[in-house]
Amino acid sequence: MPRAEAREQSNDAQDQQPNLAAHNALKIHRRLSRQVFVGSVAVGGGADISVQSMTNTITEQKQACIKQILELEKAGADIVRVSCPNQQATEALAEIVRSVNVPIVADIHFHYKRAIEAAAAGAACLRINPGNIGSKERVREVVKAAKDYGCSIRIGVNAGSLERQLLEKYREPCPQAMLESALAQSRLLEDCDFINFKISVKASDVRLAIASYRLLAEKCDHPLHLGITEAGGLMAGSVKSAVGLGCLLLEGIGDTMRVSLSADPVEEVRVAFAMLQALKIRSRGVNIIACPSCARQQFDVIKVVQKAEQRLEHIREPITVSIIGCVVNGPGEARSSDVGVTGGGRGTHQIYVDGKGDHRFSGDNLVEHIVMLVEKKVKELKEIKELKELKKLKNETEKQTQ
Ligand code: SF4
Questions:
Q1: 243 Ramachandran zone, left/alpha/beta (phi>0; psi -120 to 50)
Q2: If phi over 0 gives left and psi between -120 and 50 gives alpha, with beta otherwise, what is residue 252?
Q3: Pocket of ligand 1 (CB under 6 A)
Q4: Is the CB of residue 371 less than 8 Å from the CB of residue 312?
Q5: I want to staple 115 with a disulfide (CB 3.0 to 4.6 A). Which of 142, 234, 260, 361 is the partner?
């Protein structure tokens, strides 16, 4: 069976494989959560873990904001959050929402009126901290707007802005304080007969964030939005997020996620997908398996990998490519790849397709050869998918006419 077809098999089919114990040991058991919708994107209830990012343009500068959201969409973001710090921003929101395809979450702090305006402007979700919205009456008005306009809400608890009484009680941000804050804020919404919300308990301290999410996951069944807040720059922030979110995701905790980086927001999406891909939770684009290279390498592995990553950025279909410098690990890695290269002697490298040796390559431009093979494979995958969809449609039509 071609690898592309094999990959399309469901988890049920995997369960029928002989090494059940090994398969079960690798399985992630997702926490059961309710499902809410952020526009058309389902969050929780077993839905795919969605990837979020946030714009860092001035919201009133609509064209810049729209441009950035479109870039995030292209990178694979499922949901994008936009800050609404003032009325000009919520006024800009309507056009922004109309001009993009992903659902928009309006980020609101302190001013309940901004939340109401954002809901009316078409935000799919309101990120609020009910504790800083003001009186119960104001929270009630925000909830009414969310109900009227079909918005969900995210309760965003943050270790850096915990309520004063909780800091006095616990002296410092701690998992119990984060839990209490989240549950108290949940009650505020539930008292308004509103359960269409998800919760985050973010902290910049990775261990605090992990412990807080674990605690919250036990105590409620609301969908959870994961994040390590103020994680830092591209390198440090990615590592912190991968450690924190990776740990939670492996435990089945988390329904949607944002990697917060002091970097171009597009990087947040890239890093999020790399994390989901590493855990085999969700795939998008090319997954390159490459060796670190050493004196045995038969071509410049690092250079080829760097160039291939750039040249394959446009691929969205999940596909695995192995680029290995020599025969020590090359054939083994190629067996589980869609396209593989193993460095061979005298500049002649072995090329694998669908896990099997296909031909040898000794030309100058190994990168372009890999790109050509990957694009061919992607075309094949798309054709297989289309055929399957056609077959499914045909079966459904036949059933209806019987
Ligand atoms: S696969 Fe070969 S070239 Fe790559 S690191 Fe291992 S021994 Fe070195």
A1: alpha
A2: left
A3: 291-294, 296-297, 324-326, 328-329
A4: yes
A5: 142
Q: How far is the CA of 27 from the centre of ligand 1 (A)?
A: 30
Give the predicted TM-score (pTM) of the model: 0.87
Q: How many CB atoms lie within 10 A of CB 390?
A: 10
344 Cα to the center of ligand 1, angstroms: 11
- All structural domains of the chain: 30-278 (3.20.20.20), 286-384 (3.30.413.10)
Q: Report the C-alpha gap between 279 and 306 in whole angstroms.
A: 22
* Alpha carbons 233 and 377: distance in angstroms, whole number: 35
What is the DSSP annotation of 316-359? Answer: -S-EEEEEESSTTTHHHHHHT-SEEEE--GGG-EEEEETTEEEE
Give the nearest ligand 1 atom to 291 CA: 4
Distance 302 CA to ligand 1 centre (A): 12
Q: Which of 289, 293, 299, 337 to mutate to test the pocket of ligand 1 (most atoms within 8 A of CB)?
A: 293
Is residue 205 within 8 Å of residue 159, measured between CB atoms? yes
Residue 1 pLDDT > 80: no
Question: 342 CA distance to ligand 1 centroid (A)?
Answer: 10
Residue 13's contacts (CB-CB under 8 Å, 6 or more residues apart) are none
The CA 333 to ligand 1 mean position distance, Å, reads 11
Closest ligand 1 atom to 298 CA: 3
Is residue 50 within 8 Å of 256, Cβ to Cβ?
A: yes
Query: For the segment 19-65, what is each residue's pLDDT rounded down to a tens digit?
Result: 788 888 889 999 999 999 999 999 999 999 999 999 999 999 999 99
pLDDT level of residue 132 (50, 70, 90 thresholds): confident
What number is the average pLDDT over the span 256-270? Answer: 96
Residue 18 confidence class, pLDDT cut points 50, 70, 90: low
CA 162/CA 168 separation, integer angstroms:
10
Q: Which amino acid is at 140?
A: R
Q: Which of 73, 70, 48 is nearest to 256 (CA)?
A: 48
Q: SS3 of 214, please?
A: helix
Does 396 or 205 have the greater pLDDT score?
205
Q: How many angstroms separate the Cα of 1 from the Cα of each of 6, 8, 151, 354, 382?
A: 6, 11, 45, 10, 16
